[in-house]
Each structure stands twice: as C-alpha cells, then as structure tokens.
Amino acid sequence: MLTVLHYPLRLLLTLALMVLCACGDSQDRGVIQGEALPQPALIKRQAQQLTAMTSQHVVSLSEHPESRILFGDLHVHTTFSPDAFIMSAPIMGGGGLRSPADACDYARYCSALDFWSINDHAEGITPRLWEETRKSIRECNDRASDPDNPDLVAFLGWEWSQVSENRAQHYGHKNVIFRETADNRVPSRPIASPREQLGRAPMGKTAQLLLALADFENREFYYGIQRYYDEIAAAPLCPPDINTRDLPAECLELAADPRTLFTKLDQWGFDSIVIPHGTSWGMNTPPLTSLDKQLNRQQHDPARQILFEIFSGHGNSEQYRDWRAIEQRVDGSLACPAPSDNYLPCCWRAGEIIQERCVGAGFDKKTCETRAANARQNFVDAGISGHLTIPGQQVTDWLNCGNCTDCFLAPMDHRPAASGQYALTRTKMDTQGDPLNFRFGFIGSTDNHRAMPGSGFKQVQRRMITETFGTSSERIGRLQRRDTLEPVPYSIPLDQNGVGLLNLRNMERQNSFWLSGGLAAVHSAARNRDAIWQGMKEREVYGTTGDRILLWFDLLLDDTRVPMGGAATATASPRFRVSAVGDFKQLPGCPLFAKNALGAERLQRLCGGECYNPSDQRQRIQRIEVIRIKPQIGSDEPVGNLIQDPWMILPCPDDPLGCTVEFEDKEFPDSQRNTVYYVRAIQEEAEMINAGNLRCEYSEQGECITANPCYGDYRTNKEDDCLYPAEQRAWSSPIFVSYQPSSEQRDEAAKP
User: Fold this and answer.
1) Which ranges of 567-720 does DSSP label H, i.e. alpha helix?
2) 3-class secondary-structure state, position 699
C-alpha cells in the first residue's frame, strides 16, 4: 500500500518521467535460452508412439508407413499483438511482456511440441516488429540442431483479423502461415485488416499514469503503452491498388476482405496456408453471420484455405444447430426468436430480466410486457453488445442464455451457421454452374495470447494459461466494470459514444468460456519442416482438445487406403477403420532436462513450474463417434437434415492400449449422393478448466436457475481453476467420398 508520504513523491516522479521522456522499453524479440532437446528425450517420445501403434488394438506399421504423429500449435500470439499487449498488464492479472523468444522456449521445454507457428495480429505488427519476428523464428529453428530431424519446427505467419458489426461485411479471422522463413521467401510485411483504432491506445495518458501509480513496481510497463501504440501509428499505410511486390517495405498493408488477401498472397507467390478460425465465436461475430458469403471463387481459395481450426481456447466451433440468436423477418427487419429446446436466446433473456425488474417494482402486467418487448428489440438492435442495453446488468443475470447446451464446449454465443459442420454441408454453384464446397481438414490450436504454444497439456493455472483477464483488486475492478448504472426496470438503446471496443464485447462473461486450448496433429513421414508441411497440405491432420490423443482414420477401398483428409469415389458401400490411443496421464512438475535447460527462475516464469511431463500410464478411449454429412445437392436444401451427429457410436474396450473399430455405410449405394465422414475419439472423463462454463444450478425441468460464473477478477478465488468434468477428444479430418454410378447405372441412364 502507498503511504501518505510516498504517494505524492511517486506521483511527481511518474509525471516527470512521462512528460520529460518517452519511457518504457520498446518490445524486441527477446533471447532464446534453451538449446535443442537432448536426443534421449526425442528417442523416448518416438518409441512411445511406436509401442502404441504396435499394440493389439491398433493398425500395423505396414498399413501406416508414416511412422509418426507430430503435435503442434498453429495459432500463437506474443505481446507484439495489441490485444495480447493490453491483456499482459500486470494489474489485470497478466504476466507482463511476452516475446517470440519466450514462445520458442515454451514450445520446446514447457509444452514439448513438435512444431508451432507465430500468428501475431497483423494490425499491430510494425515493420520493425515484423523484422524481429522473422529473426526470432529463424533463431528458434537454428536451435533445433539437425534440420533433417529437428526437435522443434517453428513456422512464420500472422493473423488477418477482420471484424465488423455488419454481418454482410464480417469475414472473421484467418491465420496465414508460410512454408519457409528466409527473408527472400516470405512477404516483406504482413497484411492487415483495416481498423479504425489502429495506432490508438485503448486508454489515455491519464489512465496510464494512474495505472503506473497503482502498480508502481511494474510502472515501466504502463510507461511503455503509449510508445507501443505510437510505433503502430507511425507506420504509414501502403498506397492501395499497387502490386504488393512494388510497395515500400516500411508501410502497413491492408486487405479489406479475403479476396484481397488471397490476391496479395498470389502476388507474392510463396507457399502458404490460410486457416479460418473463431468462425462461430459470438463474442465478436455478429448474429446471423454465416459462411455462405465466403463460399465462392472470389472469397475462398481452395488451394490455400485447406484447414479449419475447429477447437481453441475460445471453444468448439464444430457443431451445427437450426436455432439462431436472432431472426430475420420477411421484410428484412430483425427480431428476437422464442426459446427452443436446448437454447435460450440472450435477447429473450433480456426481456425476462426487464420483466422481472418491472414486476418487482410494482408496475402492471401490460406495462411490463411492453417493456420486455422493447428490451428484446433493443438487444437485437445492439448486435454483439446487447448486454449494454440492460442498465446495471451482471453476468449472473443472463443465466446460460446464448449457450448451445447440448454441444460440447461451444464458444460463448455460438453462431451455428459459421460452424465446421455447416461449412461441410453447404453447396454453391459457381458462375459455370459447377458445385463448390469447402473441403477443410480439421485442426485444434490454442489461440494463446501469452506466448504459450500448446498450453493445454495440464488443466492447471487457469489465470496463467488461458485468456482470463481481470484484476485482483476490488477497487480497480469496480472502476473497470463501471458499475455506476442502477438496475432500473426498463431497457435503453445502445449508445456507442464513449464506449471502448473491449467494453462493447461482453469480456466479463467471456471469462467463463476461456479454455486451455487445443492442438494440431499431423501424420508425417518425418520430423522435418517439409514433411510436416506436406502432411498439412494433404489435410492428413486432426485436432484435439489439448491432450495428445493418437488417431488414425482410413477409408479402405480394395487394396487402397485413403487417410483422413483424403477424397475418393465409390460405387459400393465404403468401409472405414478407426484407431485411437489416449494420452499419457501427467506427472506434476517438469522433466529434469527442462529444469537444466531453462533454470528454475525462467521455468517458473514461462511455465509456472508445470510442463508436459508424461507418466507411463495412458488414459482410456471410451468410444468412437462417427459423423456423416450429405453435402447439399442444391443450395436450398435444409442443412439440419443433412448432418447426422452422431451417426454411429462405437464402444471401445476398457483397455489403455487403445481401440480399433471398423464400420461400413451400407446406405451409401442407395443414396447415390456424395458423403462426408469424420470421427471423434472420446477419451475417459477428466476435469477441464471452464468445462462447466457458467456453472449453472438446474431446475427439475433442466433449466438454468442460477449461474456461478468463473470471473477473471477478485470475485473468483485466484486458486480456483474452475474445473469441471468433461471428455477430452480428437476430431479427425473428414474423408470426402463422391458417389460414382456403376457401369450398369451409366448404361441405363444413357438409354433414350
């Protein structure tokens, strides 16, 4: 606590520093401390996988010559990203600045990954920071010793983050990653999305001063806020409509939509992959957003946009449902839909909140019904910021509205028409009359903003490894939440004047939905960069919730094996085989080689003293779930009728050695239509951070009657990891099977 004597002195000192100098160090790439992993650690990792593959339940090596599955994270931010920078503020529970070097050491020694990519938001990467990023990724790879058998492969990339409150203009978030890292083999600058707030600090100098005073020990961080945003603002915008290769290196390049992004990547001509993610997050995705506007030859690049991040620290973007957060009337106006099974629209809950207040204040029934209707409409009109139309609202008021209660760990305010299943189902005809479909491989990643690739290896330290954001100070917390409005018995239309971007989003409620993040797995012929890239290009990938589940999924056609991510034609019933082995149960702490490499202080700062530290015991695979999807024949065919989830549930033996099952689609020949299949391997139940989301208490009718949110600030004990039982899982990439008529059917069709 500041004493009466110390406070004026600190105030004067802080004012003097902020006025007389540009205080706060500029961020740099940092210094990588760890060397390559010791060879015995890599040999043990590979031997454990070979043992799993040759167990009695899993396919033989002769059927899978690609003798390894490698795990990585293709979505990692450092504090080079503006949002990560602000979230790292120590007074808000952040751990301070986190550099690309920190991410490299974390991936190698804390999470023990095989590969990772850096994906800072292009909107905040200045020319200097892009140079620092490129250098750091090369330094991370240089530590990997043998390039043909590296312990860790680091990929270079960025995130293109396009967000709009207008759903017709909202294209969402895409990670761009490159095969190579040399300066002459990657773009000279990242490509950002236009943002009005580029280079604008989210707080003024007065607020920075107050934070420095309140957290004097970490004052250098707050001094540096203005320096960071001044550097972004100083980067001039690149002139439009010029070939990207002809632009000056020292400018900020923009692409307003995917078509422009793909055009610029084509102009560079470097091998790259573009990965959509966060497609169904309601936190910053407008209601009624769908992937339809991207399913065309202009806004979709089938050669680059081949992977889809289905799971991350924001939740699961997999599952489709027919309900919507709002509905569109025939005349184009928007309205609030009534509740349906397993779904309570938040606009409807807004009406209930106001009606409850109105009745409690003694108003008559008709008045309260009118006010409830107004509240529903105000919420609808406010888009993602509907919560701000209810004065004095609290997280607990909303119960579990907006949740897909029968989905697995769906994100807050799930948008089903932007889900993975919806993407696989939709068909559009192009200008030549040819059908166009998305053909994505599925991956998981973390979307970690604290330079922690692969942070989901243990379900501990919620405040450190998730995006949990909030102060431990009750006084500062109340100021931040601006609890100044009384809970009056009426709604107010949203007025965005003076409301910051972060406050427009319901970040306070989002704290109950932050997860530890997933992983991307690649079937690879070798450990090196080229082999990993080839596995990704062939979509022979899958995603997990964070555990390193081993998964194989194959279509068996005569003497041919088509692995996950592949495509084939068939006339007869297709037959499939699935094999899965659970992850190792974890030991506390870190392996000795991690302690030796990083030292106790850095190991504690980066990893919190916890690393991927497998025991010899594996978790059991409980069952295999098969999902079958019939892509539309015409774009008017209802989507919900074409998704069978699950189509089959195949039990597994109670055996930690793994599970192998086979199944056949005997209905395929009679259906005479293309079909997509993918599987989920479900691991035995264990506790996961925030798997209970709002931790509702339910009535006998199954309705949420009270919520116990997992706050990011002082209201939830800092030792509370908000654990709840859930079944970790792996999602295979789909196998795309096209129906091919038999020769007899073709002959019959050819008859006049």
Assistant:
1) 592-607, 668-671
2) coil
Tokens 């949002």 sit on residue: 83
More confident residue, 204 or 212: 212
| The pLDDT of residue 501 is above 60 | no
Pairing of strands 315-316, 253-254: unpaired
CB neighbourhood size of 660 (10 A): 20
Residue 635 CA to residue 666 CA, distance in Å, equals 26
Query: Buried b / exposed e across 377-388, counting CB within 10 Å, b at 16+?
Result: bbbbebbbbbbb
Partner residues linked to 176 by β-bridges: 158, 274
**For the chain, what's the residue count?**
752
CB neighbour class for 462 (10 Å; exposed up to 12, middle 13-18, buried from 19): buried
Q: Given the DSSP bridges, would you call strands 153-162 and 115-118 parallel, antiparallel or unpaired?
A: parallel
CA–CA dist 227, 233 (Å, integer): 10
Could you tell me which of 583, 588, 592, 593 has the C-alpha nearest to residue 608?
588
Intra-chain end-to-end CA distance of the chain, in Å: 92
State the burial class of residue 489 (Cβ atoms within 10 Å of its Cβ: 0-12, 13-18, 19+). buried
**Burial grade of 168 (CB within 10 A; 0-12, 13-18, 19 or more):** exposed
Q: What tokens does 160 get?
A: 């293109």
Alpha helices in 413-537 (DSSP H): 420-425, 462-465, 474-481, 501-504, 507-510, 529-537
Name residue 632's amino acid: Q
Please, are residues 427 and 631 in contact by the beta-carbon 8 Å criterion? yes
Q: What is the pTM of this model?
A: 0.94
Q: From CA 65, how far away is CA 716, in angstroms rounded? A: 50
pLDDT above 90 (res 165): no
Neighbours of 492 (CB within 10 A): 15
Place of tokens 């972060």: 502
- Residues in Cβ contact with 336 at an 8 Å cutoff, skipping those fewer than 6 apart: 326, 327, 345, 347, 348, 351, 376, 377, 379, 380
Dihedral-angle region of residue 465 (phi above 0 means left; psi in -120 to 50 means alpha; beta otherwise): alpha
Residues 6+ apart with CB under 8 A from 482: 503
Q: Are 452 and 75 in contact (CB under 8 A)?
A: no
H or E element: which one contains 160?
A: strand 153-162
| CA–CA distance, 312 with 314 (Å, rounded to integer) | 5
The tens digit of pLDDT for each residue in 673-719 reads 999 999 999 999 999 999 999 999 999 988 999 999 999 999 999 89
- Between CA 722 and CA 67 the distance in angstroms is 38
Query: What is the rounded distance in angstroms from the CA atom of residue 722 to the CA atom of residue 376?
Result: 31
Q: What is the pLDDT of residues 463-493, one digit of tens each?
A: 999 999 888 777 777 666 555 678 999 999 9
Check: CB of residue 309 under 8 Å from CB of residue 278.
Answer: yes
State residue 499's pLDDT score. 47
Instruction: List Cβ neighbours of 425 (8 Å cut-off, separation of 6 or more).
Output: 320, 629, 630, 631, 632, 639, 642, 643
| Radius of gyration of the chain, Cα coordinates, nearest whole angstrom | 26
Q: Which amino acid, 341? A: D
Please give the backbone phi and psi of residue 380, each rounded to the nearest 5 degrees, phi first. Answer: -60, -45
Which 8-state DSSP code applies to residue 440? P
